[in-house]
Amino acid sequence: MAMMAMTIRNSASRRTMMSRPIFGSRSMSSWWKNVEPAPKDPILGVTEAFLADPSPDKVNVGVGAYRDDNGKPVVLDCVREAERRIAGTSFMEYLPMGGSVKMVEETLKLAYGDNSQFIKDKRIAAVQSLSGTGACRLFADFQNRFCPASQIYIPVPTWSNHHNIWRDAQVPQKTYHYYHPETKGLDFKGLMDDVKNAPEGSFFLLHACAHNPTGVDPTEEQWREISQLFKAKKHFAFFDMAYQGFASGDPARDAKSIRIFLEDGQHIGISQSYAKNMGLYGQRVGCLSVLCEDEKQAVTVKSQLQQLARPMYSNPPLHGAQIVSTILGDPELKSLWLKEVKIMADRIIGMRTTLRDSLEKLGSPLSWEHVTKQIGMFCYSGLTPEQVDRLTSEYHIYMTRNGRISMAGVTTGNVGYLANVIHEVTKSS
Q: Which stretches of the chain score pLDDT less than 50?
C-alpha cells in the first residue's frame, strides 16, 4: 500500500509539473509581445498601392525592374537559350561555398577587363554572392570583422538598403555630399571636401555607374580627380556596380570608374549583380571581389569571405550561375547579350528624351535638362513629396516620395500622360 501511495504521489507530481509553464513565470504567448510591426519598405509600398488601385490610367514608375515598351517584364533571348542548353545537363549538387568558379571568372573579366593582369596574377579574392545585396552584406561583415574600428562613408542620397546593410553588419556610418538639389547634378565640391576631410584610410561606398536613385554620375575627368584624392588619403573604395551595361549599353564604358582606380594602383572592392543587366532578378546572381596585394593574400581573404558566407546561407544558388557562365563563356551568346543589354539601355535613354521633349513642348517654366543628363534606370526628377502625393492621389501616378522616377516604367503609351500630369503639378512652382 505504501508503495502504491508513493506511485500515485509521483504521478500527480509529474502531472503538476507538466501543467506548469516550462519557461518559469513567462507564458509561451509572451515571448514576442514586444515585437512591433516593421516599417514598410518605401519602394515595395509603392507597388502595393499601385496594385490596389483600380484606375485604368494608373502608372507605376516606382518599380526598380526593367519593363518593355508595353510595360511587361522581359526575359532576354540569350537567357532563354542558355536555359535550353543547361536543362538536364547537370546534377543539383551544392556549389562550393565560393560559388561557381566559371561564373566568377567571367564576372571578374567584366569588371576588371578581359586581359586584366590582376586576374592573371590571381590577386583577386572573389566569391559568388546573393546578387548585389548579398555582395554588399558580405563585404560589410568582412569590414566589421577585420577592420572593427572603421566606419563607412555613404553618399547622400543612396539606395536605401545600403544603410540597412552596413547597420545590420554593425559598421558605423557617415555620409558624404553627392547630389546638388539646385542643379539636380553632382555636388562635386562637396564630395571632394568630404573625401579630403575624412580620416586617412577611410572606407567609402561608391556607385560605379547609374547612381541610384539620382542617375547622376561623375564625368571621367571627375572620376580621375576622385581617384587621385583617394590615393593621397589612402582611402578604400568599395564600388557597388548594379547596372554595368544597363546604364550606357556598353559594359566597358560603365566600368570606367573602376578601371580608373585600378590604373592608379589602388586596392578596391566590387559588388556586381546580374539582376538588371541580364534580367535575372529572382535568380539572385552576383559576385563580391576584393583586390589584394598578391595571390597569397587573395587566397586568405577568399577563405574568410567563404567563412562569413557559411553561417549565412552556406552555398549560393546553382541555376542562375549556370545561366551567367553559359552566356559569358560562349562568344555567340555573349554577343547576343551585348546587343540585348544595349537595346534595354537605349530604350530608357529614348524615354528620357521623349519625356523631356514632352514637358518642354507643354511650356513648362522649369528646366528639364537633368532628365537627359542623368543616366540609368532612375531619374531624380526634382518633384517634391507634396507634388508626388498629388500625382498619386489625383492622377494615379505611383513613385517614391523623393521624386525618383523609374524610367523603365515609362513607355510610348504613357509618356504623354506622365508629362501632362507632371506639368500640371509643377507649373505653379
A: 1-9, 11-24
